[in-house]
């Protein structure tokens, strides 16, 4: 019991830092997804199939976790399934987006999810959000637009269908974060991650059957990239996001997610020697400053 409390205290204490690191890992999703030749349905199925054992085994081998599973209210099981369905919608939409349009267009459209979380927070949860926090979110989104290039040619280079998928990915992500914000306060973090991921895996499994998507037969490189994606994006990003929600607000997590473009540019400099253009540097500065200001306002409200 004491060890569990220490663990919970550790997560609560470093939740904000963990969120930023999770964003860093999650920023690789677009690049990896565009490199994998398998279909979007297969990517989602394998990503979750590889990651799920790391959450199922600890839950099944712990008497305490098994007891906690029995104590979860039926309504919370339902909300965990709904959250997993929203995550399925996000994954499926995002993988289609990066295959059908350029990553620049997909990133800026998918980064709109803080607006969805903001609307849910105010209209459904009836929570007060300061004008300064709202302004910070808007400025961060503006910075994201500047990073990918606000000129028409950047967006014209993409495909309209892909852009629509990216917008849908943002909507599903916002709903996914919003549901998690409420349920995580009542359900243990590790069990919530397990239930949501399992629900998402069920959705992808059904999708594989109905679309006739093959499970095997992809290239060796595809499987290598899928393993990398499972560890970096599914475990290192989404699992950490869910563990942090409940210790920080979903609006905080969702807003920091807009920093994906910043991390992507930094990684491009380090690994691909791609020097960013002036407008990209300006956008990075705007996003980072806006998020730091938002963090300050969030801390004041807490």
- Give the strand tally: 0
Rg, Å, rounded: 19 Å
The outline comes out as globular
User: How does the major sheet shape up?
Assistant: none
Q: What's the average pLDDT?
A: 83
Which helices and strands occur, and which strands form pairs?
Elements: H1 2-13, H2 15-26, H3 29-35, H4 40-51, H5 53-60, H6 63-71, H7 74-100, H8 103-110, H9 113-123, H10 131-148, H11 152-156, H12 160-183, H13 189-211, H14 220-244, H15 250-256, H16 260-272, H17 278-301
Helix pairs in contact: 2-14, 3-7, 3-14, 4-7, 4-13, 4-14, 7-12, 7-13, 8-10, 8-12, 9-12, 9-15, 10-17, 12-15, 13-14
Explained architecture:
With about 300 residues, the chain is mainly α. The chain has one domain (about 15-300). Helix content is about 80%, strand content about 0%. α3 (about 30-35) runs antiparallel to α14 (about 220-245).
């Amino acid at each position: 019991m004491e060890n569990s409390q220490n663990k919970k205290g550790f997560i609560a204490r470093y939740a904000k830092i963990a969120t930023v690191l999770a964003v860093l890992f999650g920023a690789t999703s677009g690049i990896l997804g565009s490199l994998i030749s398998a279909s979007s349905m297969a990517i989602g199925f394998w990503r979750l199939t590889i990651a799920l054992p790391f959450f199922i085994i600890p839950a099944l081998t712990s008497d305490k976790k098994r007891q906690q599973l029995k104590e979860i209210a039926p309504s919370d099981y339902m909300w965990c399934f709904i959250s997993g369905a929203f995550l399925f919608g996000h994954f499926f939409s995002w993988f289609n987006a990066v295959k059908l349009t350029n990553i620049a267009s997909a990133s800026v459209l998918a980064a709109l999810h803080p607006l969805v979380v903001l609307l849910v927070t105010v209209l459904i949860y009836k929570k007060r959000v300061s004008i300064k926090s709202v302004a910070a979110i808007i400025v961060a989104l503006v910075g994201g637009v500047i990073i990918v290039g606000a000129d028409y040619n950047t967006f014209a280079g993409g495909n309209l269908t892909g852009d629509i998928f990216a917008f849908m990915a943002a909507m599903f992500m916002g709903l996914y974060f919003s549901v998690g914000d409420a349920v995580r306060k009542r359900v243990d973090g590790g069990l919530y991650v397990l239930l949501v991921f399992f629900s998402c895996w069920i959705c992808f499994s059904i999708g594989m059957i109905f679309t006739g998507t093959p499970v095997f037969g992809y290239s060796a490189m595809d499987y290598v990239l899928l393993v990398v994606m499972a560890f970096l994006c599914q475990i290192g990003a989404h699992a950490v996001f869910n563990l942090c929600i409940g210790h920080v607000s979903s609006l905080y997590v969702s807003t920091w997610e807009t920093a994906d473009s910043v991390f992507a540019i930094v990684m491009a400099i380090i690994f691909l020697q791609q020097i960013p253009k002036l407008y990209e540097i300006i956008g990075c500065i705007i996003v980072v400053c806006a998020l730091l200001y938002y963090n300050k306002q969030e801390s004041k409200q807490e």
